[in-house]
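// run 5 | inverse folding | seed 20
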């Protein structure tokens, strides 16, 4: 059951990762700069973007300069 769930969840994680990457671009940040603002290792942020690790949404929303770009990027998923 858990394997089946992971297979279904993976494409969704990749879409969320693309939205996070888009949010960084909208905020005018590189992945390295965003990782610094998030106080996270750049490798961890890369895993969020590639969908191999669940992103820490609370950490993303805690950075004020990322809130609006992230909301915009997530909303774009609804129209993709």
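// decoded
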């Amino acid at each position: 059951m858990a394997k089946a769930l992971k297979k279904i969840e993976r494409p969704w994680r990749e879409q969320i990762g693309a939205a996070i990457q888009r949010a960084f671009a909208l905020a005018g940040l590189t992945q390295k700069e965003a990782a610094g603002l998030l106080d996270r290792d750049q490798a961890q942020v890369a895993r969020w973007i590639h969908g191999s690790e669940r992103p820490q949404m609370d950490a993303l929303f805690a950075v004020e300069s990322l809130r609006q770009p992230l909301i915009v990027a997530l909303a774009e998923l609804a129209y993709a």
